[in-house]
Amino acid sequence: MNNTLRAASLLLGPLLTAVATFFWEDTRHGLTASVIGLYATVAGVYGTLYLWDRLTAWKPWVGATGLVIALLGFLGGVAFSLQGVFEGLFDVSKTASLDAAAAHPAAANLVLWLPGPAYPLSLAALAIALAWSRLAPWPVWTGLLCSAVCFPLSRITRTEWIAHVADLLILAVFAALALLVLRGRLDPAPATTP
Questions:
Q1: So what's the pLDDT on residue 193?
Q2: Closest to 154 in 3D by CA, of 13, 9, 18
């Protein structure tokens, strides 16, 4: 049962993210996409934490480091989603939103600009850890590395077709990881010395 829930989490997070991109409004997330994105972020937590738990069993310091990066990535996802929700609710323009963030640089940096890059960084870290541990086959970790490049490229440029490609790639990779979880294939060897 737990592996079914973990696999569902690994699928649901990227699936909702992919759906949210269809609701972008003139290269902005907008209210609907932001609400869906918020729930996408929350939906993906359980499965992703399980992946890092499996890597912790392999090398504790790798799992602990990756877990911190992943949690920062989730914080960034929630923060940017909430920013979009509040921009939509209060009808705040992109310029006004950026000006408000600039007026509070410490808060903006701690909540938005520093955690924001943690999500693609967590994809890259997960790819490297899965390759190093040999817990996942090369197409999975290679796909994660490609996702780590495509995702920020799509979100920084707000290019919808790149966003759809990134979303599809992430969904495919996490579907493969979900399948590995369902089959019990992510059980690593006992922990090695750090």
A1: 52
A2: 18
Of the candidates 181, 150, 157, 191, the one whose C-alpha atom is nearest the C-alpha of residue 48 is 181
- Contact (Cβ atoms closer than 8 angstroms) between residue 82 and residue 39: no
| Amino acid at residue number 150 | C
Distance of CA 57 to the CA centre of its chain: 22
Residue 75 φ/ψ, nearest 5 degrees: -60, -45
Cα-based distances in Å from 126 to 65, 72, 94: 10, 14, 32
Which whole-number Å values give the CA distances from 21 to 9, 37, 63, 158, 170, in the listed order? 19, 9, 30, 10, 13
Q: What is the pLDDT of residues 72-98, one digit of tens each?
A: 999 999 999 999 999 999 998 888 988
Minimal CA–CA distance to 151: which of 35, 13, 51?
Answer: 13
The partner residues of 153 in beta bridges, in order of sequence, read none
pLDDT of residue 189: 52
Q: Are 59 and 192 in contact (CB under 8 A)?
A: yes
pLDDT at 10 over 90: yes
Residues contacting 192, CB < 8 A, separation 6+: 58, 59
